[in-house]
Amino acid sequence: MNEKRSVDIIQDALFSSSVFKEGGERTLNQSFVPENLEYRSDDIRRISQNFRPLFLLKSGGTEGFSTNLALTGPAGVGKTVTARYTVEHIQNMAGRHHIKLYTDYKNCWTTRTKTSILRSFLRDQFGVASRGFSDEESTDILIRRLNSEQAYLLLILDEISVLPQKDIRGFIHLPEEFGAAHRISLIMISRPTEWKVTLSSMVSQRIADVIQFNPYNYEETRKILEYRAQLAFKTSSISEDIIEMVADICDQTKNLRHGIEIFYRAGRAADQHRMDELTPELIRHAKNDVFPEMRADILEELKTHELFAALSIARRLHHKGITATTIEHSFKNYRIICEEWNVRPNGEAAFRNYLSTLEAIGILGKVTKGVKGRKGVRARLTIHDVPAAVLIERIEVFLDKRFQRV
Ligand SMILES: Nc1ncnc2c1ncn2[C@@H]1O[C@H](COP(=O)(O)OP(=O)(O)O)[C@@H](O)[C@H]1O
Ligand SMILES: [Mg+2]
Is the CB of 383 under 6 A from ligand 1? Predict the structure, then answer.
């Protein structure tokens, strides 16, 4: 009896009705590329135009072709999806024109060095296990292979500023190491701040085209979300009102990813609660879970000691059950963190200034007055909408990057 019931539970979980269409949940994955990309036709055209020479090559590809493009723009405006969409279609087109074109997409948050990017490409596309090979050896294998097949490679490097500078240079200079027969092209994607601050001066001479992506306006956001809802959900599970509600949220952050993620989470929650449509309440819940990505931009702007200060609070708040901490406690943590990074800590007055900056920027929650203790009124520190674990991870990644570059 018991066993039967357990089986029923599984059966139910697997086959009971869902707000998603069959296969609809998958369309909300980050890597999903929809069939239509509205409002990006200018960008798609402009990216494509840079590859015209590839299709005009004579003598069956003994000539070289290489170009480097940069796409920049804030988070959630379709840079990644537009790059993937365009590259996918260029590859299909190349196939029809008997041009051998390899393509690959790498997010540098996941694959963090030139070596690992090259290796994983060689492994996935050519089945070459290049584990013990040096960078030069890997590159050599790649170029030989492309030459012998008279093939080309078009590589999308997303979030490229995460790579160490020497690796970025390495990629940019890759074609030229091998004489005239250039066969590797890059589409580099980056946020505008990083682009301006580090990348553009470093690589600009080698970039054929910089394409700036701007946020969608309200109407565009709503239309896109309507389309994405159609792909993901059963018609009866989502209403115009809900789509508008999500469009409003996205319009505030100007980040379409928030909308897609809210759809995903709300849909999952509806299924979990055996509801047959998305409700405003589900959307509100999902909204709170979606990590606001603007924070990632903000971290870039912070000085090292401010990052240490933010980390000192986040680490404290990461402990179970702790929702707020004190300046005294955080200051202690801050000094420990300085030690970890081999940096001399500044005094408490400076530390308080860092906290003020963090508060002004909105990373720190309002520094509210807490309990009166022996030392007078104590400030209590909290962090805004970002989960402490996420903040810790982000800051540590930034610090790693920053220190590598010093
Ligand atoms: N024009 C569009 N049509 C359909 N979906 C889009 C469009 N633009 C962006 N999206 C979706 O919005 C989300 C955010 O886009 P993404 O390309 O990841 O932004 P970025 O790379 O600029 O941060 C993705 O899920 C993407 O599929
Ligand atoms: Mg992206």
Answer: no
40 C-beta closer than 6 A to ligand 1: yes
Query: 256-304 pLDDT, tens per residue?
Result: 998 999 999 999 999 999 999 999 889 888 876 775 544 556 677 788 9
Binding site membership of 392 for ligand 1 (Cβ less than 6 Å): no
Total structural domains within the chain: 3
CATH number of the domain residue 53 falls in: 3.40.50.300
Separation of 160 CA from ligand 2 center, angstroms? Answer: 10
Domain, as residue range, for 114: 41-212
User: Ligand 1: which of 257, 261, 290 to mutate, most ligand atoms within 8 Å of CB?
Assistant: 257
- Ligand 1 atom with the smallest distance to the CA of 189 is 21
Closest CA to 313 of 331, 300, 340: 331
Euclidean distance between CA atoms 81 and 29, whole angstroms: 11
Q: Is the alpha carbon torsion for 157, 162, 166, 167 positive or negative?
A: negative
Residues in the chain: 406
Q: Are residues 286 and 308 in the same domain?
A: no
pTM for the model = 0.73
Return the CATH number at 238: 1.10.8.60
pLDDT tens digits along 57-72: 765 556 788 899 999 9
Tell which atom from ligand 1 comes closest to the C-alpha of 260: 25
